[in-house]
Amino acid sequence: MNRAEKEAYLREYGQLKAEGEPFFPYSVAKDSVVAVIVMAIIITMSIVLGAELGPKADPTSTTYVPRPEWYFFFLFELLKIIKPPELVPLATIGIPTIGLILLFLLPFYDRSAERHPLRRPVATTAGIMVIFAMGYLTYMGAAAGSPNEIEMEAPSTLAGAAAVEWEKGKIVVGQSGCLACHKIGENGNNGPGPELSHIANKLPAQAIAQTLRNPTSPMPSFKNLEEQSPEKFSAMVSFLGQLN
Amino acid sequence: MPDVKKLLPPIPDSLKLQPRRAGTDPEPETVLENAQEAGKHAAGWIDERLQLSGAVRWALFRKVPRHDWTYALGFSVMFSFLSQAVTGVFLATAYDPSTTNAYESIRQITNEAFLGQFLRGMHRWGSTVMVVLVFLHMAQTFFYGAYKYPRELNWVIGVVLLVLTMAMSFTGYLLPFDQRSYWATIVGVNINGTGPIVGPYLSDFLRAGPEFGATTLSRFYAIHMLLVPGAIGAMVGAHLWLVMRLGTTSPPWNKPRKKADA
Q: I want to staple A177 with a disulfide (CB 3.0 to 4.6 A). Which of A65, A140, B67, B163 is the partner?
């Protein structure tokens, strides 16, 4: 904005202000109505949705897969989309930092005098695209489902006790947080660990059990699980051993 | 004595207090008349010492350009913040920020205290409402071009407030100290640690040390209820001061009815 544009703006603004309404009661009335609506929304959400409290924090468990609050989902999804390890810092810090700097400096690089959204095509398009991108990533994060649950049908060849064991193994694998790093069918993240959808074709059950006990870093070992509850461990192995 | 009439809003003539006619103004006699005089005297005494009536009058009756309902978004953000502050104070009366007792105190608030779950729900969902309103307020400012001259610095203050709001929601997430909050916070702090230059220091500051320990929770608690709310209060003050000094913008499609004098 050059000096003439600034003066023109201030002149027009002064005019608009003089033709305006007193803050009290006109703005105050609108603000009050909106405040009542906001309060009603908060109270309704509190009554309908309540406040859940999960199990107590356990620093010794290594298998809990955390999920952030929904308005951080877009950052969370960004992490999932960007796979190569050398680019991960870009997703965690790079893109949010650049976005924040762009946000801070907005009035200093967008200096045109035009304010009407339809006559600022670049700014308006960029704004709408950012909103859509964040909305899409948030939706993806929400639709990813619980990272502790696997949705899969038992193979039709299994029946009776084997099918029960398979279902049990499915739950244990889900709760053990495997999906944070492994893809199983349509579930979980593809990486950093290898896909497990057809792991039984590559490894016999025995070898799978061995890998669970003695994995390569950074995968956690499931030796403790085997010692504390062997039936969970064997259910896990029999579920993974059927993935072919 | 200062003129109390200056404090009255621009109400229609029919509702205005009628001045008494000259010569018919008697000394207060009845109890009611005396009480009325006492009120005027008290208001006058206070205003003579605070010198506020001018500022209040200016703040309330200054003209603002005609505007639509989206202009109430800013106030609604502040209102949701006040709601968070009030419910937060009530929660703080029963919360114990130690790793051994935090979970139990939240369980007591949720399951045993009178209206406890309702209160927690208001604080928990109030944060969601506040974040949504912050984004709506920001989008409105962006699309209306309201961040432009002469309001650039108020936009910058607004972005600081956005970051502070995010910091509130991040630090508040740990306080119930259940599995979800604990592990989400571990991940969040580790992500902070990968940042350039200040990243590792920020993580150490948040954890109160190189590892997540017993003092981490009390540090998050102090940040959540003293440091950041104080900063938000100060920033909101500056934000509002600039809004009042510079005036709220006009929607960009509104033009003056009569041409400005050249």
A: A65
Q: Token pair of B152, please?
A: 């650039």
Nearest Cα to A64, choosing from A159, A146, A154, A151? A146
Which domain CATH number covers B207? 1.20.810.10
Q: Is residue B82 part of a domain?
A: yes
A186-195 tens-digit pLDDT: 777 776 678 8
- Give the span between the Cα atoms of B232 and B88, in whole angstroms: 14
A158-188 pLDDT per residue, tens: 777 888 888 888 888 877 778 777 888 877 7
Contacts of A56 in chain B (CB under 8 A): 103, 177-179
Choose the closest CB to A56 out of B10, B103, B118: B103
Nearest by CB to B176, from A31, A39, A53: name it. A53
Number of structural domains in chain B: 1
Residue B60 lies in a domain: no
The class (CATH top level) of A161-240 is mainly alpha
Q: If you measure CA to CA, which chain A residue comes closest to B187?
A: A66
- Closest partner residue to A20 (CB to CB) among B65, B145, B150 is B65
The answer to whether A108 contacts B152, with C-beta atoms less than 8 Å apart, is yes
Q: Cα distance from B204 to chain A (closest Cα, Å)?
A: 17
Indicate where chain A has its CATH 1.10.760.10 domain(s). Answer: 161-240
What CATH number is given for A60-144 in this structure? 1.10.287.980
Is there a domain that residue B10 lies in?
Answer: no
Q: Residue B46 falls within a domain, yes or no? A: no
Q: What is the ipTM of this complex?
A: 0.84
| Domain that includes residue B238, residue range | 71-246
Chain A contact set for B240 (CB, 8 A):
none
CA dihedral in degrees (B190, B194, B200, B204; nearest 10)? -10
- Residue pointed to by tokens 């005396």: B34
Q: pTM score, two decimals?
A: 0.80
Among the residues of A50-182, which ranges form H helices? 73-81, 88-89, 95-109, 121-143, 161-175
